Amino acid sequence: MPATARPTQAHSHASGATAGAKPKLYNPRHPERTLLYQTIAEHFETWFELASAGQFDGQGDHHSPRPYVRQAFRKYLECGIFAHGFARAWCDDCGHDYFVAYSCKGRGVCPSCNTRRMVETAAHLCDHVFPRLPVRQWVLSVPKRLRYFMQRDGAVLNMVLRIFLRVISQSLQTHSPGAANVDKAAKHIGAVAFIHRFGSSLNAHVHFHVCAVDGVFEEVPGIVFHPASGIDQTAVAQVQTDLRRRILRAFVGRGLIEKADAKEMLAYQHSGFSVDAGVCIEADDRAALERLLRYCARPPFAMERLRKEGAALVYRCAKQRSEPTSDKRGAKVDELHLTALELIDRIAALVPPPRTHRHRYFGVLAPNSPLRSAVTAMADAQPDATGDDAHRPAPLGNAISPTPEPVPTKRPAHYLWAVLIARIYEVFPLLCPLCGGQMRLIAFVTEGRQIRRILDHIGVDSEPPHIAPARGPPLWDDCGDAQMDDGAQTEPDWATDWDGAAQPVPDFEVDQRINW
After folding, report:
1. What is the DSSP secondary-structure string of 263-311?
2. 3-state secondary structure of 240
3. What is the DSSP letter of 185?
4. Nearest to 8 by CA among 381, 410, 426
5. How many CB atoms lie within 10 A of CB 294?
6. Model pLDDT for residues 303-345, shown as the tens digit of each residue
7. Please, what is the Cα angle at 287 between 286 and 291, to 5 degrees?
8. What confidence tens digit (pLDDT) does each residue in 281-297 have?
């Protein structure tokens, strides 16, 4: 449900670069017009009946899909629909108003709510968590044989993530020359780990994206940051080698794989382990850091990659600006051709369970770390309007007080609806399109009779979109709904006219006794 918000200076109508410039207008979305919504509304109930009967895999140990999966789809079918309720925005200057439909706030299905969650997570981490220091992204992918255990057992997934973070910490400590003589117990890293359970082709693929401050923090009477240097391909290859050895040893210790199989996997030239650390963001490039965090917090499904070709749905797996490639036969290898039921089944398999964290904090950024307040205070440090650097973070190698001065205003953990819209589309939704004045939400309409009366009065459809019930095989529906033209000839009734039906004459005699 949207909440009231005041425009910031960057989006206020009174502080534009040019006086009298017309602000950008906010256009409400219409999810019922999208291909994804129409596909789910038409085929979800059919898929649910088939999945409950065991026609699709990937829903756990039982045939019936999990209750949270069904709830996520049904909440999405109500998201952004005015017939299910809305808020009223009003301009005090000119009396103009418009309605804003409610959102489902679901995870995994709704593209709008997934985007809101992605932007909110990235904005919070960039504005209030990560200090103004270099940040490097570490990505780990493991062989498919090990992903199976990580997908089904949370303890195994946590084990692999802990090993990954310990190896990252050791690599940063080794490549931080300023901390060479510091006690190991006094050196800490700061990282946020994102757990991805999906791949780019709507497949189950458990891997990790870790955004770590590129260096180590030394715990003294204050905090001293020692930047890392020399993390090249050789250092990343060493991290990959250490991870492969330690992860396989941990799987053998838990009895998940045999010792001989682990030894054989260590000898593979292409083992399936992959570590990448090529993306590093400079300390002052906060816009690039926010883009990186949005990428790490992205949802499994992108609606702009979905299109329809004839009766098939085509999902483009490559990145948005990349050109599709083709194999030797001319078929595009980075596109999925799916039926409606197959698309719903793939999305349903990627819906995350409730109360499952998608990202976790480690090191000095962990919630229980006594150094968190001092480190996160560096994220809010800004130069003042006169250009004085008094508000910038302390230089590298200088101590920072572990108890910073209290911030006069409370830092929000959640961003308001209008602020997120302005951050995504660079248009503030609570600016009046007629006079440019500030609008405010004055009412929340949730009662069914009032919703219908208001929508009928303004000429908007007061009935929600039709959700098709579960259907049988398409052949049965076609036979039951077939309409014959007046001049068309009907097929013979085989039950009564079998003898009168013309039978084809075989070309040769067949001795059925020999064939039998």
Report:
1. HHHHT-SS-S-EEEEEEEE-TT-HHHHHHHHHHHT--S--GGGEEEETT
2. helix
3. G
4. 426
5. 18
6. 889 999 988 899 998 654 444 455 544 455 688 899 999 999 9
7. 115
8. 999 999 999 999 999 99
Query: Would you state the structure tokens that stand for residue 143, as one six-digit string?
Result: 């062989």
Residues 6+ apart with CB under 8 A from 195: 157, 161, 206, 208, 357, 358, 359, 360
Tokens 């070709």 belong to 309
Amino acid occupying residue 213? V
Alpha-helix residue ranges (DSSP H) falling in 395-492: 417-425, 448-458, 474-481
Instruction: Tell me the DSSP string of 113-136.
Output: HHHHHHHHHHHHHHHHTS-SS-EE
* Residue carrying the six token digits 């038409």: 42
Q: What is the pTM of this model?
A: 0.77
Residue 52, H or E segment: helix 35-52
Distance CA 80, CA 75 (A): 10
CB burial of 467-485 (b: ≥16 within 10 Å; e: otherwise) equals: eeeeeeeeeeeeeeeeeee
> Do 228 and 214 touch, CB atoms closer than 8 A?
yes
The token pair at 125 is 């981490």
